[in-house]
Design a protein that fits this description.
The protein has 74 residues and is mainly alpha-helical. Helices cover 20% and strands 5% of the residues. The chain is elongated, with a radius of gyration of 17 Å.
Length: 74
Protein backbone atom coordinates (compact mmCIF):
# COMPACT_ATOMS: atom_id res chain seq x y z
CA UNK A 1 0.00 0.00 0.00
CA UNK A 2 1.24 3.48 -0.83
CA UNK A 3 0.41 6.70 0.97
CA UNK A 4 0.37 10.21 -0.47
CA UNK A 5 0.65 13.41 1.54
CA UNK A 6 -1.16 16.23 -0.25
CA UNK A 7 -0.26 19.73 0.92
CA UNK A 8 -2.04 22.87 -0.26
CA UNK A 9 -4.47 20.66 -2.12
CA UNK A 10 -7.21 23.17 -2.80
CA UNK A 11 -4.77 25.70 -4.23
CA UNK A 12 -4.16 23.51 -7.28
CA UNK A 13 -7.72 22.93 -8.45
CA UNK A 14 -8.73 24.37 -11.82
CA UNK A 15 -12.02 26.29 -11.81
CA UNK A 16 -14.53 25.46 -14.53
CA UNK A 17 -16.53 28.69 -14.24
CA UNK A 18 -15.52 32.31 -13.77
CA UNK A 19 -15.23 33.30 -10.09
CA UNK A 20 -14.71 36.88 -8.94
CA UNK A 21 -13.68 37.95 -5.43
CA UNK A 22 -13.33 41.24 -3.61
CA UNK A 23 -9.73 42.15 -2.74
CA UNK A 24 -8.51 41.11 0.72
CA UNK A 25 -8.74 43.73 3.50
CA UNK A 26 -6.02 46.36 3.16
CA UNK A 27 -5.24 45.38 -0.45
CA UNK A 28 -7.64 47.72 -2.28
CA UNK A 29 -6.31 50.24 -4.79
CA UNK A 30 -7.28 53.86 -4.12
CA UNK A 31 -7.82 54.66 -7.82
CA UNK A 32 -10.03 51.58 -8.36
CA UNK A 33 -12.13 51.27 -5.19
CA UNK A 34 -14.74 48.92 -6.72
CA UNK A 35 -12.26 46.53 -8.31
CA UNK A 36 -12.78 42.76 -8.10
CA UNK A 37 -10.39 39.97 -9.02
CA UNK A 38 -11.00 37.05 -11.35
CA UNK A 39 -9.56 33.87 -9.86
CA UNK A 40 -7.34 31.63 -11.98
CA UNK A 41 -7.25 28.78 -9.46
CA UNK A 42 -9.35 27.57 -6.55
CA UNK A 43 -8.95 29.02 -3.06
CA UNK A 44 -9.71 27.72 0.39
CA UNK A 45 -13.26 28.62 1.35
CA UNK A 46 -14.79 28.52 -2.13
CA UNK A 47 -17.67 26.12 -2.61
CA UNK A 48 -16.09 24.99 -5.90
CA UNK A 49 -12.67 24.15 -4.39
CA UNK A 50 -13.29 20.58 -3.17
CA UNK A 51 -14.78 19.50 -6.50
CA UNK A 52 -12.00 21.19 -8.52
CA UNK A 53 -9.31 19.53 -6.41
CA UNK A 54 -10.94 16.10 -6.48
CA UNK A 55 -11.20 16.19 -10.27
CA UNK A 56 -7.52 17.08 -10.60
CA UNK A 57 -6.51 14.46 -8.03
CA UNK A 58 -8.55 11.80 -9.85
CA UNK A 59 -6.86 12.63 -13.15
CA UNK A 60 -3.42 12.36 -11.55
CA UNK A 61 -4.16 9.01 -9.93
CA UNK A 62 -5.68 7.56 -13.12
CA UNK A 63 -2.59 8.71 -15.07
CA UNK A 64 -0.49 6.60 -12.64
CA UNK A 65 -2.69 3.59 -13.50
CA UNK A 66 -4.71 3.54 -10.30
CA UNK A 67 -8.35 2.54 -10.64
CA UNK A 68 -11.21 4.30 -8.92
CA UNK A 69 -13.51 2.09 -6.87
CA UNK A 70 -17.04 1.96 -8.24
CA UNK A 71 -18.39 1.27 -4.73
CA UNK A 72 -16.91 4.39 -3.14
CA UNK A 73 -15.61 7.11 -5.48
CA UNK A 74 -13.65 8.84 -2.74
Amino acid sequence: MQQYDVKNAFLHGELEEEVFKDPPPGFSHSLLPNQVYKLKKALYGLKQSPKAWFERFTQAMVSMRYQQSQGDHT
